[in-house]
Each structure stands twice: as structure tokens, then as C-alpha cells.
Amino acid sequence: xxxxxxxxxxDRSVKLRGQYIARLYGPDGSLKQEVVGKNVVCTNGxxxxxxxxxxxxxxxxxxxxxxIAIGSDSTSEAASNTAMGTxxxxxxxxxxxxxxxxxxxxxxxxxxxxxxxIYEYGLFSSNTGGxxxxxxxxxxxxxxxxxTLTVTYQLTLS
Length: 158
Fold this sequence. Notes:
By secondary structure, the chain is mainly beta. The chain has one domain. The protein has one helix and nine strands. The protein has one helix at residues 43-57; strands at residues 16-25, 31-41, 67-71, 87-92, 94-97, 102-109, 116-124, 132-143, 148-157. A nine-stranded antiparallel beta sheet has the order 4-3-7-8-2-1-9-6-5. The protein is globular, with a radius of gyration of 18 Å.
């Protein structure tokens, strides 16, 4: 009689979930509009993360996922995206660890930077070109020349 061995595994996969928070401030500093949206983590972004983890294991990498872009294309995001639809501006963000496996990048688009109709947000590995790690499209924000926009990206690993 053969014994049957049954292996039971619980789901231990890592899941990625991203969120963008965009806040538009008027010239007087008052909050004019806030948009919060979930995004898709792009296939290239997942590959970049796997590569970063590998590099970190070799103690050869620095964190470059800190560049936030805004754009005017309202076409829905897709995992196959490799670039923004129509990029208006890109800035280096401030990186932090929030808690509960949340990686956060916050960038400020000051007066005169990235003005116009804003629908899309992206996280990149470089200040020009680079890997599009995630992309999101949301409701229209119209940024005037005297407005300031802060965009916060949060990536949750769960």
C-alpha cells in the first residue's frame, strides 16, 4: 500500500498595489482640488522591481524609483504601458517608508511647472526616459500657472 502525501500550501505571493494622491493648491496656499486613484503596476515596473531586489542583494544598487511625472493624456492605464501618453513635467520626489509595507514618493510641481490639463501620473526610474513603474489616469485637474500641485505615490506590498 502506497502512502499518499498531500502538500497544502497557503498563498504566500507578494501583491503590489499602487495609489496616487494629487493635491492642487491655489496661489494663496489653499487646497483647490484633490484626486485619489488606484493605478496599475506596469509589467516593466514589476521587472524593474525584481531587478532592483536582485541588485540590492548584491549590494550594488541605489534606489531610483523616485521620479513622478504628470501628463495630459486621459487614455486608461494598462500593464503594457512603457511611457506616459503625453508627459507635461517630471520631478524628483522625496522617498519615504510610511509603514505596513508602504513605499512612498512625493513630488511637488511648483508654480509655472506642469501647467494645463492633468489626467495622468507616472512613477519612473529616471529623471528622463527610464522605466515606467506605474501609471494612473484620473479625473481632470486644471493646473494654472500660479498653482502648486503635490503628487504622492504609494506602493503597498502585501
